Amino acid sequence: MLVCGACGDNWMKVVKSVELGPTAADDEYALQILSCVRCDARAIGRYTESRRGALGSESVHHFGYPVDRGAASALLQMLNGGDHEAIRAAFAPHMDEAQRFRVVYRDG
Ligand SMILES: [Zn+2]
Predict the structure, then answer these.
(1) 94: CA distance to ligand 1 center in Å?
(2) What is the pLDDT of residue 56?
(3) pLDDT-based confidence at 1, cuts 50/70/90?
(4) How many angstroms is it from 66 CA to the middle of ligand 1?
(5) What per-residue confidence (pLDDT) applies to 80?
(6) What is the CA(107)–ligand 1 centre distance, in A?
(7) Ligand 1 center–CA 64 separation, angstroms
(8) 85 CA distance to ligand 1 centroid (A)?
């Protein structure tokens, strides 16, 4: 499970994840819809992974951006639609850097 950016408990799950990479900067690039089982918060997930540094170095970034339920369900439909350009365009305005939280995995 993931730690929820809203309630801080480890009840956030990935509802849907679509791989859009590789990009110019990242080997893996995925956009996701996250949902908290406990407090019902919704967020966009942005996962990037780069293996282009020095040998053995790996850079993984996973951030969440809170969105309201209406936006989350509209974006989920975009993910299900599978049009990568449309997905990027729809998600971009919702990814507010000031609101983001680091997505942390926790067992259990
Ligand atoms: Zn929560």
Answers:
(1) 19
(2) 67
(3) confident
(4) 11
(5) 96
(6) 16
(7) 12
(8) 30
Instruction: Please state, in angstroms and rounded to a whole number, the distance separating the CA atoms of residues 104 and 33.
Output: 15
CA of 10 to the centre of ligand 1 (A): 7
Long-range contacts of range 94-97, CB-CB < 8 Å, 24 or more positions apart? 94/44, 94/65, 94/67, 95/44, 95/46, 95/65, 96/65
Q: Are 75 and 17 in contact (CB under 8 A)?
A: no
Q: Is-above-0.85 flag for pTM?
A: yes
pLDDT at 51: 84
pLDDT of residue 96: 94
